[in-house]
Amino acid sequence: MNKHLEELIELSKIDQSIDSFEPKVKQAKTKLEQIENQESDVAKEIESLQEEIKDAELKKAKNDLHIQELTAKLDANKKKSAEAKTEKEIKALQLEEEIAREQLDFANEEIERLDKLIDTRKAEIEAKHSELEELKEQSAQIKEDVEKELVEIEKQKQELFEKKQKLVSKMSQKILAFYDKIRRWAKNSAVVPVRKQACMGCYMKINDKTYAEVIKGEEITTCPHCGRILYLEPQKEEANAE
Known about the structure:
Blueprint: H1 3-19, H2 21-83, H3 87-169, H4 173-186, E1 191-195, E2 198-199, H5 208-216, E3 221-222, E4 229-231, H6 234-241
Parallel strand pairs: 1-4
Antiparallel strand pairs: 1-2, 3-4
């Protein structure tokens, strides 16, 4: 096989390996982001529950004040009833008292309802705090694991970069420029094998003449359809030699 072609195949594989780390990095960071988002969501839920409690406490205070006002009104009505001289005045005061007592009952029921709501929300907040603590523990462990994983990925990437630099330093700059030009649009499929007489980049069948050139491997051959650099895989070469 042509020396330059061998170098291009090796370079392409190194580039593929380097680029393959990006999804791994993204996946590792996604794990951490997911647990951090869960923490944030639970914290927001706690905040929302606390706001509900504040709102309920405010409504309770208003009802307590209303009860005081109604109680004072009922006391005042008792005095007025004792002083009332006509049946009309007595009925009017009785009606006021009935309305005040209904409002008083409603206010007491509302306070009872709000107390139950507050107790429920406090229990929910306690449960959410426990959940948040568990998430923080998980987050700390995941963060530690992710950092180790990223360090290992960076180490492997560095080794590949050094390997690539060593290879590139001895390659023909003209060949390298040709490869880079194709790689700009073909990405990691700049150099592809031929299988069953088809380019594995565009999956189009190549003609017999081009296929014969690929089999010989004496020159750098490109796909007549897409322009990618073609080569025959080792096992294909062996099968062909047999």
